[in-house]
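Protocol step 4 of 5: obtain the predicted structure for the target chain.
Materials: sequence only (see below). No template structures provided, no constraints applied. The aim of this step is simply to have a reference model before the mutagenesis design in step 5. Sequence pasted as it appears in the construct record:
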Amino acid sequence: MRIELDRGVALGALLLILACVGLTASAQTDSPDWKEELAENGNRYLTWSATVPLLGKPTKINLAFQCNPESEKDVHGTLGFDLYIHGVAALKPFSFEDFDGPDATAGADGRRLMALTVARNGKPPFVLQVAPNGFTPHMSNFGFGMADMSKLPKSDSRTLLKALASDDAESLTVSITDPRNAKLKLEFTVPVAGKQADFRKLMTGLK
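Step 4 output (structure tokens):
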């Protein structure tokens, strides 16, 4: 009788351990690449971090969506995103320098060299062509961004975030074309299925 009881206890303990392992694995694979943050200035961030293939090379990136719905007389909140690409020296011959700064030549002639495509379940994809801002946050990194005042009822940034917050959104593909070679593109896809509620939370307070 005692032996059978011990076996039953051992079996129960084993099943409990397996269940805990299963729960831990589920938690770890839920959304390991996403992070939510709230800054002291009221900016909310939803950031996707991953290593993606760019020009055939594994590249670390951070794609930070942000929103601050507060606007005052002299201070206006913004919304949009910043894309940080690490180790850009390995991605030559892509012409990052043509995007750098307010006097960048990449957008001087009105070219919109960044395509943002939201794949949607049961609907045609939503495509937005923009001229990104470029900046150098660190000597080995480069950033692309898009930002609009949050008080504007219509803007590219608001349109994109609303598309990502829609229940039918499945993924976002970012494609940036080199201004000197149309065949040279930085392109990657972000899975957003299951994150729509987080994008809606990001935009809380927008009028």
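Step 4 remarks: Strands lie at 34-38, 44-54, 57-67, 78-86, 114-120, 123-130, 133-135, 141-149, 169-178, 181-191. The radius of gyration is 22 Å.
Proceed to step 5.
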